[in-house]
From TrEMBL:
<feature type="transmembrane region" description="Helical">
    <location>
        <begin position="148"/>
        <end position="165"/>
    </location>
</feature>
<feature type="transmembrane region" description="Helical">
    <location>
        <begin position="119"/>
        <end position="141"/>
    </location>
</feature>
<dbReference type="Pfam" id="PF13231">
    <property type="entry name" value="PMT_2"/>
</dbReference>
<feature type="transmembrane region" description="Helical">
    <location>
        <begin position="280"/>
        <end position="300"/>
    </location>
</feature>
<feature type="transmembrane region" description="Helical">
    <location>
        <begin position="185"/>
        <end position="206"/>
    </location>
</feature>
<feature type="domain" description="Glycosyltransferase RgtA/B/C/D-like">
    <location>
        <begin position="92"/>
        <end position="236"/>
    </location>
</feature>
<protein>
    <recommendedName>
        <fullName>Glycosyltransferase RgtA/B/C/D-like domain-containing protein</fullName>
    </recommendedName>
</protein>
<feature type="transmembrane region" description="Helical">
    <location>
        <begin position="59"/>
        <end position="81"/>
    </location>
</feature>
<feature type="transmembrane region" description="Helical">
    <location>
        <begin position="307"/>
        <end position="329"/>
    </location>
</feature>
<feature type="transmembrane region" description="Helical">
    <location>
        <begin position="16"/>
        <end position="39"/>
    </location>
</feature>
<dbReference type="InterPro" id="IPR038731">
    <property type="entry name" value="RgtA/B/C-like"/>
</dbReference>
<feature type="transmembrane region" description="Helical">
    <location>
        <begin position="335"/>
        <end position="355"/>
    </location>
</feature>
<keyword id="KW-1133">Transmembrane helix</keyword>
<feature type="transmembrane region" description="Helical">
    <location>
        <begin position="93"/>
        <end position="113"/>
    </location>
</feature>
<keyword id="KW-0472">Membrane</keyword>
<feature type="transmembrane region" description="Helical">
    <location>
        <begin position="218"/>
        <end position="238"/>
    </location>
</feature>
<keyword id="KW-0812">Transmembrane</keyword>
């Protein structure tokens, strides 16, 4: 493929990314600068980035260890210019740029799934646009919080895993692992997704690997996909312990989630029925057609005997939803609607799987 042909093939995706970025950036600037609707979590990430560069003793550990670090780290290059243009931090513009960039990337990844599967342009465009203009996606694409990068990294992982279940390409598997590792540095929910992916990879490798050396292949593939997230977990916990004396400030610190729950009077729901009902309602609000789409896709996949593309998004996004539901039922977290935002990309990916792929990536390894 010539360079010109390669550029032409990438042009639609790049155009979609730029259009989505400008759209989310405009929404974010309107909310933060014009309306002055700035969320507390957004300001906390901006303040963390400021502390790294402009505190009395500037140092990287000033970023803090209650929240995961990536959303603040990526703001550092923009925050560095806040002395010249103070509105960058005063109105949390650096956070808006961060979330707009990542949510546009999420739209790009969803569109990339349609191109990997060579789906019809009408289907590709409709699902991509409907995802991009979803009010929840628009709001969190412009408000500077952690939902945008989390959705991006999970969609990146899902895209690569969808490729891998057909291609068995180690590059796809490794990239999926990197995406999960970065997702952990955004939200702790990524632990659930990593475990789910490790299970999928282990079973898929076991079923298609030659009998000779099968166990070694399974172990190697699981290490490749789960290793980056495990490494991120160990390094972040060890760094927190060395600096603060607590490995998990989010749970042990007076500023962590557990302390906030205690101070706000948070507790487990009064009955198990209401506790289970609440997450179901939250997911239903965000993805009202999810149950129907799951049923249709399961039926289509069952008839065609191609289950693995269906299993991938259900396990990755479903594990995060299950984790949030379980922690809410146990009274370990708040019942915020944003915690279930991954129901939206789950619905979008499943909608794409309703149409058979026109192109299946060839297997890279024998067996």
């Amino acid at each position: 493929m010539s360079r010109i042909t390669a550029l032409r093939s990438r042009a639609p995706g790049l155009s979609i990314y730029l259009a989505a970025f400008v759209f989310y950036l405009a929404i974010g600037l309107y909310l933060n600068v014009t309306v002055q609707f700035i969320l507390g979590d957004t300001l906390s990430r901006v303040a963390a980035a400021q502390a790294v560069l402009f505190s009395r003793f500037p140092h990287l550990s000033a970023i803090g260890f209650v929240f995961t670090p990536l959303t603040a780290i990526v703001q550092l290059p923009v925050v560095a210019f806040s002395r010249i243009w103070p509105v960058i931090t005063a109105d949390a513009i650096s956070a808006v740029i961060m979330s707009a960039s990542f949510m546009a990337g999420a739209v790009f990844m969803l569109f990339g799934i349609t191109r990997d599967r060579a789906l019809p342009w009408t289907m590709s465009s409709a699902v991509t646009v409907l995802f991009a203009i979803n009010p929840m996606i628009v709001f969190y694409g412009g408000n500077g919080m952690s939902e945008a990068p989390f959705v991006f990294f999970l969609l990146w992982a899902v895209r690569r895993l969808l490729r891998w279940v057909d291609s068995d390409d180690v590059h796809d598997l490794t990239t999926c692992g990197i995406a999960l590792g970065l997702a952990y540095l955004v939200r702790y929910d990524a632990v659930a997704a990593t475990i789910a992916v490790a299970v999928v990879v282990a079973i898929r490798t076991w079923t298609r690997a030659p009998e000779e050396g099968r166990r070694r292949r399974v172990l190697l593939d699981v290490v490749l996909v789960a290793g980056p997230a495990f490494f991120a977990f160990v390094v972040w916990a060890a760094t927190s312990w060395l600096v603060t004396g607590n490995a998990f400030e989010q749970f042990e610190s007076q500023y962590g989630n557990a302390a906030i729950l205690r101070e706000s009077g948070g507790r487990a729901p009064e009955s198990l029925v209401s506790a289970i009902k609440f997450p179901i309602i939250e997911i239903g609000i965000l993805a009202p057609g999810l149950v129907v789409v799951v049923g249709v896709v399961a039926l289509v996949r069952g008839v065609r005997r191609r289950w693995w593309p269906f299993v991938v998004p259900v396990m990755v996004f479903g594990s995060v939803l299950a984790f949030q539901a379980l922690t809410y039922i146990r009274g370990s977290t708040f019942g915020f609607l944003r915690f279930y935002i991954v129901a939206i990309p789950l619905l979008a990916v499943l909608a794409l799987l309703m149409v058979p792929a026109r192109r299946v990536l060839p297997a890279k390894r024998p067996g």
